[in-house]
# Entry
Amino acid sequence: MRFNFGFFLREALKNIRLNLLMSITAITTTFICIVVLGVGLLASSHVEGVIGSVREDVSVEAYFPPDATDEEIDEITNTVEGWPEVASVNYISEEEALATFKKTFADRPELYENLDPGVLPASLQIQLENPMEAEVVAQRLEEEQGFSDENLSYPQQTIDRLNSVTSAMIWGLYGATILFLISSILLISNAIRLSIFARRKEIEVMKLVGASDSFVRTPFVFEGMVQGLIGAGLAALTVVWLNFLFIDWAGDALPFVPISGDAVNTILILLVLVIVGVAIGVLGSFLSVTRFLRKV
# Structure
């Protein structure tokens, strides 16, 4: 029998209409599954974007203890300038650090109006020849110049902290996605099973007159595909909308975190989410109808 797209699609839509409540449940579960997956992809993309931005402006900051003398500071500055990994060294005094802090938070004077001039430590801002050498320079500052880990700040620390904080969250989202994925497949499979049960006599007659398994199976696969496509399509649009909301919110609430809309490939995420949703629908329906046909 030849493939008739219009016939199979009409049959699929009729089945959805006849089992509307179960179809809505399957679509809703698919929607939730794809939203959770999409949020995980967004979180991963934005973390990678922040890490990339941090790596673009690599420097190591070494903070002097309050009792450091001018002679000690000069000696350490001259020594560090001679290291092959170092491009340049900039000394920032306590007064300069406070002035920079005030400039940064000019719109929030309550943060600095009662600060003492020496509350922010003097520091060395060390620019590197190679961004990958940050950890090496930090280690040399600890071993050779006596700085403690608490008095050093460099991008690898930020990257490690970002990874540790977000990895658990992202894996949690992916774990939840897997659970919803299984639930979606089972619900769509059950919805298709109801459609098959309602039309079991018709299917038996079709088999008796010579209809192939693929001809009987195709309308139900189309039904699952439509359910997955609807759920995934709505979820993908929701994820893109959430991403725009997050970027707008981050611009106001997290002004010093380099979060950009360019970190997320919106078209790619849309395609991935829709493809996964359709795959859920097709797999669930295929498993259900194949099991039934084995018994006929």
